[in-house]
Amino acid sequence: MPFLMKKTGAMRVSALMPNAVRVGNGVAWQEDDYTPSSQLPGFAGYGLPAPSRKSSERRMCGSAECESGWTMPWRNKRRPIFEGQWGCSGRCVLAMVQSAVRRESGDGGVVAGLSPHRHRVPLGLLMLAQGWITQLQLQKALSAQRVSGSGKIGEWLMNECGVEPDYVTRGLSMQWGCPVLTTEGFSPEAMALVVPRVFVERFGLLPLRVAGSRILYVGFADGLDAASAFALEQMTELKVESGVVEGAQFEAARSRLLACDGVETKLETVENMDSIAARITAILEQKQPVAARLVRVHQDYWLRMWLESGTVGKTGSLPVSHEDVRDHIFAIRGQ
Ligand SMILES: [Zn+2]
After folding, report:
1. How far is the CA of 67 from the centre of ligand 1 (A)?
2. In angstroms, what CA-CA distances link 328 with 12, 293, 295?
3. Interior CA angle at 89 toward 84 and 90, to 5°?
4. Which of 126, 141, 149, 232 is the most exposed place for a label (fewest CB within 10 A)?
5. 29-38, 110-119, 285-294: which has the highest mean pLDDT?
6. Nearest to residue 86, comparing CAs of 105, 111, 110, 58?
7. How far is the CA of 12 from the centre of ligand 1 (A)?
């Protein structure tokens, strides 16, 4: 059995980050266990330390530019770990973080492939074509929307024309080509730990539940946000399935989640990408996390740190409690 698949505490930590190698559109899976990165086809290795045979284990430095030849002793031979790799010195941690910031700042590749701006059939027309509303209802809702200058067409159809919410939800699901999800099995306490609440507020997403310890269901009230879903997939190491949730159900679940303790989050605005890397390096050196990862969510850079090995749950990399986990979110001024 490859050592990465052993479920001991220490192994889970070292297995946390290097496995989230982006393979195609997501994380490589094999049943409920990760496929060790060394077994992925064409995978060259991410500087993961070899299984230790001696008690005097030495970790390899994760920085490509490291000059210490892997074995320079530092004050701590185990921490900080950033994206599965240990940095032997402040300089090496900075180099690792800079390369992660550069990677996240890129727009190309997988995220662009999600084509968030694909043209969609207007919801009203779609519902009309399905025979769920009449021409008259659509006209009434459109003119009410025009007069008020605000609100979504689905809301006007429900409020002005008495259209059942279920039809609007089904219409959105067809419009976005995604399933209708319910809030059944929703645990606000657990789901509050998935993502900083500021993202729940800003991007209209709601973590709903984890199924089979590998799929995270995420609900949206009006339209999917592919960029958020993709970022969540990178951060949690779970496969994210997005869908629309009926408006009232969504709002009720969302308020319950926002009432729970989430992961402690600090927001910072900085000047540029170099300042993000410098700040993250300083934070990593101060907090000495056993695991840490950076992902970009729209214009925000989200750093999550697991400060103790017990904080990594059995489900992807979801924290088991809000203790000993920290989020930092960086925004660049003017963006
Ligand atoms: Zn180094």
Report:
1. 6
2. 23, 11, 11
3. 95
4. 149
5. 285-294
6. 58
7. 23
Using the 8-state DSSP alphabet, how is residue 63 labeled? Answer: -
d(CA 45, CA 197) in angstroms, rounded, equals: 35
Give the pLDDT mean for 280-295.
95
Q: In the numeric block, which tokens belong to residue 97?
A: 């973080």
Neighbours of 320 (CB within 10 A): 16
CB contact at 8 A, 46 and 100:
no
Taking only the tens place, the pLDDT of each residue in 53-90 is: 333 455 688 888 887 655 555 555 678 999 999 988 89
pTM (predicted TM-score): 0.77
Residues with CB under 5 A from ligand 1 (ion): 61, 63, 66, 68, 88, 92
pLDDT, average across residues 192-202: 95
Query: In angstroms, what is the span from residue 90 Cα to ligand 1's centroid?
Result: 8
What is the distance in A from the centroid of ligand 1 to the CA of 156?
A: 59
Q: Which residues of 198-212 are buried (b: 16+ CB within 10 A; e: fewer)?
A: bbbeebbbbbbbbee
Q: What's the CA gap between 81 and 292, in Å, rounded?
A: 6
309 vs 159, residue with greater confidence: 159
pLDDT at residue 14, rounded to an integer: 35
58: which 2 tokens?
């030495």
**Residue 108 alpha carbon to ligand 1 centre in Å:** 29
